[in-house]
Amino acid sequence: MKQFINSKETLVTEAIDGLLRTADGRLARLDGYPHIKVVMRSDWDRSRVALVSGGGSGHEPSHAGFVGHGMLTAAVCGEVFASPSVDAVLAGILAVTGKPGCLLIVKNYTGDRLNFGLAAERARAQGLKVNMVIVDDDVALPDLPQARGVAGTLFVHKIVGALAEQGADLDTLTSEANRIIKGVVSIGMSLDTCTVPGSPKEDRIASGKAELGLGIHGEAGVEQVDFSTARDAMEKVVERLAPKIGSGPHVALLNNLGGATPLEMSVLAEELVRSRIGERIRWLVGPAPLMTSLDMQGFSVSLLPATKADEAALQAPVGPWAWPGCKPVGEIEIVVLPDGLTPIQPIPSRNDATRALIERCCNTLIMAEADLNMLDAKSGDGDTGSTLATASRALLGALDRLPLADHTQLYRAIGLELSQTMGGSSGVLLAIFFAAAGDASASGANTIDALKAGLDRIQQVGGARAGDRTMIDALAPALEELSRSPAHAAAAARAGADATAQIRRARAGRASYLAENSILGHNDPGAEAVARLFSELAAGDATLISAV
User: Fold this and answer.
1) What are the counts of helices (DSSP H) followed by strands (DSSP E) for the chain?
2) Calculated CA dihedral for residues 420, 421, 424, 428, nearest 10 degrees
3) What does the alpha-carbon distance between residue 107 and residue 413 come to, in Å, rounded to a whole number?
4) Catalytic residue selected from 59, 63, 157, 217
5) pLDDT band, residue 220 (cuts 50/70/90)
6) Is the dihedral of CA 348, 349, 352, 355 positive or negative?
7) Where is 344: in which H helix or E strand?
């Protein structure tokens, strides 16, 4: 897999330096590259207890991204998914620890425990006060004697960091850290494995499956489960978490494991709040990439029963840019539409032939969704099929409230429905098309002339003409032949759509931004949709014109 790196040997040190370039003078690093990679606060005066954490790289923004006022004093970074050395950890401890002492916050992995533990012993031998806490929040593998430490570690960083900033002593911070560790639970799910720089990608998660309870180093989860939707995925995660939490108010941390998009993470946030444990979640941290696993297409949820003091600490201001804040979970506020935009609902009426025609059109486009998306990916952004299918599903759902017996009002109602439910330029153009058809019908035009009026209007507004490689290349000839028969219209639409594959330069739509070799040989997806629509109508409805 292609990656924006120079070499795996220099990846971590170059990434740390890139972070420090934009730290505005608040962060520094110890000398000692490449073996010692320690990011620390540049404003630290050792008058308070130091908080040191770290581990293997590849979990960014953890751990260096959480160094700063109100959180970590220093982070000790290893190579990707590899614990830092004892000397590196010791260097970090010595660099930031004063008379008040140092608290090491360590995730429960053997390498981290050993290296941080031995470094702590060596620091104590030099007369420093050093305590260590082990985070073991992962509940995916309940039978293991030592649970893994995952994203729940961030609760320790933030709450204990706030207390340390206020001047709490080492024993207090250690006690509070252990209290948080005892209460926090986490579990993750992913649709794919991560890509370790310099290594081939492991392909162990089958199509249609998700891995539940996997770790943050790409290690396999407790099981592979069927995957269908975000709601189903979150339900499986909640099912594992629910028995582990109490009835009191909780803070949830929704962590992006690295490869999920912001859109996906927002959907998962909604599903978490709507889940069976949603009423217990008072605050939400994220959704955000907090403790990632390189580019893993997954997420994790961490839950902590929170006291009022915990809530205050989680909301206390901090210096690190990576902390997304802790926000209250509330109801969605809905504001009424401005005057003039509230849709005027038409009076519903029944016409079985018209209803059957609309259903056939909509179902044809829904069935073509995947094919049209694949075709659009050749020359656009790959969403033509989804855009048309979404609008078709919405139109099917609106049939009972449409004026099916009044074609003038029906055109206008369809135009209004599409303007509200169909995104992108296609939605606007088709809304204009049906609105203009309604106006022409109101002036006495028959069905075909009304549809031609709609075509004229979108050509005026959109600027496209036949030969520009758009849906017009199929729609215009189809409407010209429709008076002869649906079969003639279908043949004309198919010929027009197929001809777009030989148009070397698009002059409208997203394809107009692409080079000739990107579009040549591929039908325009809008024209293809029109061709499939007329083909289906001609095959199944010989009385098309009389029906409408």
Assistant:
1) 19, 13
2) -50
3) 59
4) 217
5) confident
6) negative
7) none
* Whether residue 233 has pLDDT greater than 90: yes
d(CA 430, CA 417): 10
The pLDDT of residue 507 is above 70: no
- Three state DSSP letters for 346-404: CCCECCHHHHHHHHHHHHHHHHCHHHHHHHHHHHCCCCHHHHHHHHHHHHHHCHHHCEC
Q: List Cβ neighbours of 270 (8 Å cut-off, separation of 6 or more).
A: none
| Euclidean distance between CA atoms 244 and 426, whole angstroms | 49
pLDDT given for residue 146 in this prediction: 75
Residue 534 DSSP SS3: helix
Greatest Cα pair distance, the chain, in angstroms, is 97
∠ Cα 322 303 286 (to 5°): 30
Half-sphere exposure of 357 (CA within 13 A, CB side): 20
Single-letter code of the amino acid located at 85: S
Is 66 strand, coil or helix? helix
Give me 3's structure tokens. 């990656």
Distance CA 203, CA 351 (A): 53
Long-range CB contacts (within 8 A, 24+) of 314-319: 314/155, 314/158, 314/159, 314/162, 314/251, 314/283, 314/285, 316/70, 316/162, 316/165, 317/69, 317/70, 318/68, 318/69, 318/70, 318/71, 318/158, 318/161, 318/162, 319/26, 319/68, 319/69, 319/70, 319/71
- Side-chain-facing half-sphere of 380: CA atoms under 13 Å: 26
Cα separation of 507 and 505, whole Å? 6
313 within 8 A of 341, measured Cβ to Cβ: no
Give CA–CA dist 158/135, Å, rounded.
14
pLDDT of 347 reads: 84
d(C-alpha 50, C-alpha 131), whole Å:
10
pLDDT in tens, 80-121: 999 999 999 999 999 999 999 999 999 999 999 999 999 999
Residues forming beta bridges with residue 132, ordered by sequence position = 104
Q: Of 12-16, 142-146, 463-467, where does mean pLDDT reach its minimum?
A: 142-146
DSSP-based three-state secondary structure for 445: coil
Q: Quickly state the pLDDT bin for 416 (edges 50, 70, 90).
A: confident
- Enter the tokens of residue 173: 């911070």
CA atoms within 13 A on the CB side of 14: 8
DSSP code for 280: G
Return the residue matching tokens 């990707």: 80
35 is catalytic: no
CA distance 129 to 398: 70
